[in-house]
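## retry 2 of 3
previous attempt timed out at serialization; input unchanged, resubmitting
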Amino acid sequence: MRVAVVGKGGAGKSVIAGTMARLMARRGTRVLALDSDPLPGLSLSLGSGPEPAEPLLGNAAEQDVNGHWGWKRGVGPVRAVQRYATDAPDGVRLVQIGKPSREGFGPIIGSSKAFYEVVHHIADAKALRGWTFVGDLPAGPRQAAYDWAPYAHTYVVVVQPTAQSALTARRVARIVRMHRGDAQLVFIANRVSEKPDVHHVEKLIGEPVFASLPADDGVAAAERLGVAPIDHAPDSPAIAAIERLLSALQKL
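## retry succeeded, writing output
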């Protein structure tokens, strides 16, 4: 299974992506989590804790005399994953684009270039054959438009029952269908309180919802604490719903 999780900022993408990655690993699958969001999220939702100050993937890239970025000698996309992915709970491996520092985005330019090359070459890599990929994309449609998840067979579009969230979801869906007609696309209604919320989301997006996840105090508490919901509230309704979502996605 190879999925990319997209949607509006704050919709719950990282929680869903991180929890799916952990659950897949518990089922015995080798999982590579791909974090292309420059804001914190996936590492915490996975239970890996805060990210390193310097993105590890930046060690795989260097500039030539003309200022162009490329791989360091002896490093390519697969070797970069093997060397610079970090360990997460349940055996998940995590590759991160990096987060901006006080100096801005300058320090992560190299890791960004390397990350983009990684995601464009891992799908056909023999060394990663049989792996599950779970990508957490940043808010909005930009990365979908610029093909930051070419590995994805399925785009999981996360929608809260609000007009703003639905607008972003529709835009993302339109872009994915334009550029990735071969990929499947499903809508997930997140943080719904009751059945009418699901119908409201379907009305806002004009399409059926594939699955819904409940508003959950345990997950909300985990996010406030900066810990993985699957560790903080393993028996919560939302975690159970994500497990059902995962099973449904595997049947697509």
